[in-house]
Amino acid sequence: MDPILEIHDLTKVYADGPVALDGVDLTIGKGEIFALLGPNGAGKTTLIGAVCGLVRPSSGTIRAFGIDLAKDWRAARARIGLVPQEMATDMFSTVANTVTYSRGLFGLRSDPARIEQILRSLTLWDKRDSQIRHLSGGMKRRVLIAKALAHDPELLFLDEPTAGVDVELRRDMWRQIGAMREAGTTIILTTHYIEEAEEMADRVGVIDKGRLLLVEDKATLMARMGSVEARIALDVPLFTVPASLAAYPLTLSEDGRTLTYRGHGGAAEARAEVARLIKALVGADIGFSAIDTRQSSLEDIFVDLVEQGA
Predict the structure, then answer these.
(1) 170-191 burial, b for 16+ CB within 10 Å, e for fewer?
(2) Helices 167-182 and 137-149, interaxial angle, to 10°?
(3) Sheet harboring 3-13: ordered strands across?
């Protein structure tokens, strides 16, 4: 995959002391969806701001489309779109005028057909003559995306794109983001909704206190750091885990009525081990009435990583 964004040893230290970015190295491939996860204050928005020319780095290099941003940031910025967290536009302007104006800011000629295409793709065409102040929170969020798409960026940053919208609108916007990727746009998103990254991202990065803790393919990460937990309700209480089951990672509840299996690594391997455990229980004549199996989510892995990095 050809790199579209290359960040090397990027650091940002503010005048009052906080280190917002601490030697970040990151390469984004053309056409991928990359999810950047981290708690509040981790450095996500600062990193986006550095690439989009809103934050001046203290040190390090950023290259987008092969262009060194320190030497020609205007040329690179014209090919980058940004959907910020906050609504920063004239609330009395209409949807169509706002999106058209955003296109003009990048020196592009008026293109009503392209604006119509963007608005229709985001279910905004029927609202084109509405003032933004009259829109719902979800529709305002869509306007932000439309503004960012107005100049047809090759690289699109989405900073908390679905914050404050309901579940139905969130899923609808996930579909829109998928369509953008299908059209060839490279997407970097930050989000507090971990299921958003789990649903859409090709790769995941975890940042905390300005340091990039991990960057990995999503499926590989979940296979490597995921876990499976199985809770087995026993028919008859046990006083201890039988020696015949000692090879399995089991714990026994205080009342002796529940065996809990916790396996780490790939989900497929853990499920296979649970199947072997069930056979071992039957072989040992240990009766059970129910098995509740749960696979760890990306959120579980994210929390563990942040806690380890604390």
Answers:
(1) bebbbeebeebbeeebbbbbbb
(2) 10
(3) 19-29, 3-13, 59-64, 67-68
Q: And the tokens for 96? A: 């169509």
pLDDT digits (tens, 9 = 90+) for 19-42: 899 999 999 999 999 999 888 888
Buried b (16+ CB within 10 A) or exposed e, 104-124: eeeeeeeeeebbeebbebbeb
Beta carbons of 89 and 132 less than 8 angstroms apart: yes
Tokens representing 62 are: 């950023």
Backbone angles phi, psi at 221, to 5 degrees: -60, -45
Quick check: 2 pLDDT over 60?
yes
Q: How far apart are CA 288 and CA 282, in angstroms?
A: 9
- CATH 3.40.50.300 residue ranges of the chain are 3-222
Domain 226-309 class in CATH: alpha beta
Q: How far is CA 18 from CA 8, 120, 208, 209, 210, in A?
A: 20, 43, 13, 9, 10
Q: How far apart are CA 129 and CA 150, in angstroms?
A: 17
**3-222, superfamily in CATH?**
P-loop containing nucleotide triphosphate hydrolases (3.40.50.300)
Averaged over 97-111, what is the pLDDT? 90
Cα–Cα dist 142/169, whole Å: 10
CA distance linking residue 121 with residue 298, whole number of Å: 29
